[in-house]
Design goal:
Elements: H1 3-20, H2 31-52, H3 56-76, H4 80-99, H5 108-127, H6 135-154, H7 159-179, H8 188-219
Helix pairs in contact: 1-2, 2-3, 2-8, 3-4, 3-8, 4-6, 5-6, 6-7, 7-8
Length: 220
């Protein structure tokens, strides 16, 4: 079986794992099983990206997805600091990937949107949690996600997929912070967090890998 077919199977497994993970919330599973189930979504996206990778940028994307997988597993294991560091490292790698693939012909409005996104998201994240002692750290972390989304907006990858996926990731994070603030106890928030996050990761991964893959095939 060639790599493209294996990649398609990996993507299918990611979708099955990520979508079905919601069902595990109603099951009395051992923690290890729940963590493993959660990890299948972005874990198989990492495999998909690796199978599609033919260039340095493709391996950068693989590393970004791998750090997302690590963050998922660590956060579900209740190591919030280590999970946050893994996600933040992934955001910074993604910023590198997107800015080295910057779109030509960017307008002042594009730069303004990307630039304003960072303080706007950081301020919103800082304001959300009831625990004010944690607010500064949360704001710093959120700024990293916003920087990633702004870089995705400036990249040459399709905005309706890549930038949209990055913004969905950012909104998912804001819902997490709202869950320890004004949306505490709201049953729908958990579903919103996971669905926005996982859908965003799928859009980011598939859109970037597809563009890079087409270019790699033309070079062969």
């Amino acid at each position: 079986m060639d790599r493209r077919r294996l990649a398609a199977w990996a993507l299918g497994a990611a979708l099955v794992g990520g979508v079905s993970y919601v069902a595990s919330w109603e099951m009395d599973l051992p923690r290890a099983w729940s963590i493993a189930w959660k990890g299948t979504g972005v874990g198989f996206l990492t495999v998909y990206a690796a199978l599609r990778a033919r260039s340095f940028d493709g391996w950068l994307l693989t590393a970004v997805m791998g750090l997302g997988f690590l963050g998922d597993v660590l956060l579900d294991g209740e190591d919030m600091t280590a999970g946050g560091v893994a996600f933040l490292a992934g955001h910074l790698l993604a910023v590198w990937l997107y800015l080295k693939n910057r779109r030509t012909g960017l307008r002042p409005g594009d730069w303004a949107f990307a630039g304003l996104l960072v303080p706007a998201v950081a301020a919103a994240a800082w304001a959300l949690p009831d625990d004010r002692a944690a607010a500064v750290g949360i704001g710093v972390y959120a700024a990293g996600g916003a920087l990633m989304a702004g870089a995705a907006w400036l990249s040459r990858f399709p905005r309706r997929l890549t930038a949209a996926g990055a913004l969905m990731f950012v909104v998912s994070d804001l819902l997490i912070f709202a869950r320890i603030g004004p949306l505490a106890g709201q049953a729908w928030v958990g579903f919103g967090v996971w669905s926005l996050y996982f859908a965003g990761q799928v859009l980011l991964c598939v859109s970037v890998a597809s563009v890079l893959g087409r270019e790699d095939r033309r070079r062969l």
